[in-house]
Amino acid sequence: MPTIAQQLLRRKPTTPPEVEDGQLKRSIGLFSLTMIGVGGTLGTGIFFILSQAVPVAGPAVIWSFVIGGVVAGLTALCYAEMAGAVPASGSTYSYAYATLGEGTAMAVGACLLLEYGVSTAAVAVGWSQYVNQLLQNLFGWQLPVQLSQAPEQGGIVNIPAVIVIVLCSLLLLRGARESTTVNSIMVIVKIAVVLFFCAVAFTGWNADHFHNFAPAGFAGIVGGAGIIFFSFVGLDAVSTAGEEAKNAKRNLPLAIIFALVIIVLLYVLTCLAALGAQAPEKFANQDAGLAAILQNIIGSAWPGTIVAIGAIISIFSVTLVVLYGQTRILFAMSRDGMIPPVFAKVNPRSMTPVRNTVIVMIATSILAAVIPIDFLAEMTSIGTLVAFLVVSLGVIILRVREPELERGFRLPLGWTIPILSIAGCIAIITQLRVITIVVFLIWTAAFLVFYWFYGRTHSKLQAGRPAVDAEAPYTSNFAQPSKSEIREAAARRRAGRK
Amino acid sequence: MSIVVGVDPAHRSASALHLAGMLARSSGTSLVVAAIVPPAWPATAGGADAEWRGYTRDAADSTLDHAAAVLGGSIAAEYLVYEAPSARRGLNSLAEEREAGLIVVGSAAQARQGRIALGAESDALLHASPVPVAVAPRGYRVAEGSRVSRVTAAYRGTGASAGLVLGAAAVSATLGAALRIASFAVVPPDSGTSGAGLDAETAIADTWAADIEKHATSLARRVTQLDRAPVVSGVAVGRGETWEAALAAVEWEPNEVLVVGSSTLGPLSRVFLGSHAAKIVRHSPVPVVVVPHGVATRDRE
Question: Which end of chain B is more exposed for a tag (fewer CB within 10 A), N or C?
Answer without folding.
Answer: C
